[in-house]
Amino acid sequence: MAGYVSEVLGNLEKKVYWEKEFLQAAAEVLNSIKVLVEKDSKYKEHRILERVLEPERVIMFRVPWQDDNGNVQVNKGFRVEFNSAIGPYKGGLRFHPTVNLGVLKFLGFEQMFKNSLTGLPMGGGKGGSDFDPKGKTDNEVMRFCQSFMSELFRHIGANTDVPAGDIGVGGREIGYLFGQYKRLKNIYEGVLTGKGLNWGGSLIRCEATGYGTVYFAEEMLKTKGELFKHKRVAISGSGNVAQYAVEKCIEYGAKVVTLSDSNGTILDEDGIDSEKLAYIMDLKNCKRCRIKDYAAKYKRAKYFEGKKPWGLAEAEIALPCATQNEVDHKDAKALVDNGCICVAEGANMPSTPEAVEYFIKKKIFFGPGKAANAGGVATSGLEMSQNSMRLAWSREEVDNKLHTIMINIHKAAKDAAEEFGTPGNYVNGANIAGFRKIADSMLDQGLV
Ligand code: NDP
């Protein structure tokens, strides 16, 4: 039976050898669930692995738009509707020049298991474009979003497929996308999450991924009687996830010493406090400037051009919150050498397979993205519930629900890891718990 996993992975490599990120994510999941698939022949009999690896639908389209100088620009648009066994497709949109089908298949594949772990009825999907919002004016971003939605609207809906934000897609973009959807469909429905609070958004959605990552790390630490308080934390990125991870760390009495962007890293030995965080939020979300400016404003901080945060300073906790494959084996070693005992992935697949292997070998608490950063999509699920009920819950109510969901995800991953003989291995636990629910639902629903 172990041959089934190898056979499927071997065939996949031949079929889509250029989709490197997708192959990486597929190998990680399939190797983890080998023990489950070995135990029960029904999965092979019904070819569940082949079915789960093939998106139900992939939509690719042209996105023509006009820049402020009147020039015509053309980008690629995508939506990968991966799996709807347990609910409508759900997953973010990424606008970044590195976006291609392989990257979105990796993200959609991961999303499917993540959504399953939340315990909410959401299938998996992902989409986006190779459009780069950096350096574009608000009007250019609006025209792009309107053109993107002019094709996407026919494929999505509150009960079909509900996109959200991701890298390069924040509140501004969701607003333009929602406006165009409403105009084209003449329906006011919860078709997107991450909406503005005045028009159907949920309190805490903005904070959810960062907060949730810290809640997950807290649960891992608690298993050995450790706390966030007084610990030093290294965080990468300075976007949505990173910002709210910092906010929760401050609330928990920890000291965040690094943040980064795609140009470099800042190190602040004094720690990033609430006032400095407010400066960063304004810098990144309003002025749309570089993290480098932080070191110009706070003179005791240092800026390292082209460097990642890992190993720049001592830190017991690391929260990679930027992008995929940003922590390699060398970085993992540098983190551990600098006293790291806990890594929780705010980003999707930020650690390479070699880095993950190293963390597990060193018995570091390691929370993989699909479990640790599931708070974002979980709160999107709560936004969908509120939209269906035409109600809005209080901040406290949503945060409590988010916190409970993160505690439950931690427990599900921990229990599954123990049940299948790898206690403490949250990678195996999250993959098995996430996969089992989807696979069994697919079996219930027949060959579709
Ligand atoms: P943002 O666009 O708000 O921020 C992304 C941050 O990562 C920016 O600081 C960006 O720097 C940096 N970054 C992007 N690409 C690279 C790169 N190639 N190298 C170094 N730094 C890079 O995105 P989010 O915070 O929303 O997303 C961050 C991660 O979290 C992604 O992996 C995303 O998939 C994941 N995630 C997000 C969720 C959400 O709710 N937003 C939910 C679950 C996961 P720069 O400004 O220079 O581009």
Features:
448 residues, alpha/beta, Rossmann fold, 2 domains, five-stranded mixed β-sheet, 49% helix, binds NADPH dihydro-nicotinamide-adenine-dinucleotide phosphate
List the helices and strands and how they pair.
Blueprint: H1 2-15, H2 20-39, H3 42-45, H4 48-53, E1 57-66, E2 72-83, E3 89-95, H5 101-117, E4 124-129, H6 138-152, E5 161-164, H7 171-185, H8 205-222, E6 232-235, H9 240-251, E7 255-260, E8 264-267, H10 274-286, H11 292-297, E9 302-305, E10 317-319, H12 329-337, E11 342-344, H13 353-361, E12 365-367, H14 369-372, H15 375-389, H16 395-419, H17 426-444
Parallel strand pairs: 3-4, 3-5, 6-7, 6-10, 10-11, 11-12
Antiparallel strand pairs: 1-2, 2-4, 7-8, 8-9
Helix pairs in contact: 1-2, 2-5, 2-17, 5-17, 6-7, 8-9, 8-15, 8-16, 9-10, 12-13, 15-16, 16-17
NADPH dihydro-nicotinamide-adenine-dinucleotide phosphate (NDP) is lined by residues 165-168, 170, 209, 237-242, 261-263, 321-323, 326, 346-348, 373, 376.
Structure write-up:
By secondary structure, the protein is of the alpha/beta class. The protein folds into two domains: 2-188, Leucine Dehydrogenase, chain A, domain 1 (Rossmann fold), CATH 3.40.50.10860; 208-367, 3-Layer(aba) Sandwich (Rossmann fold), CATH 3.40.50.720. It is 49% helix and 15% strand. The protein contains 17 helices and twelve strands. The strands form two sheets. Strands 9-8-7-6-10-11-12 form a seven-stranded mixed sheet, sandwiched between helices. The protein has a five-stranded mixed sheet with strand order 1-2-4-3-5, sandwiched between helices. Helix 8 packs across helix 9 and helix 8 (205-222) crosses helix 15. The model has no long low-confidence stretch (mean pLDDT 97). The protein binds NADPH dihydro-nicotinamide-adenine-dinucleotide phosphate.
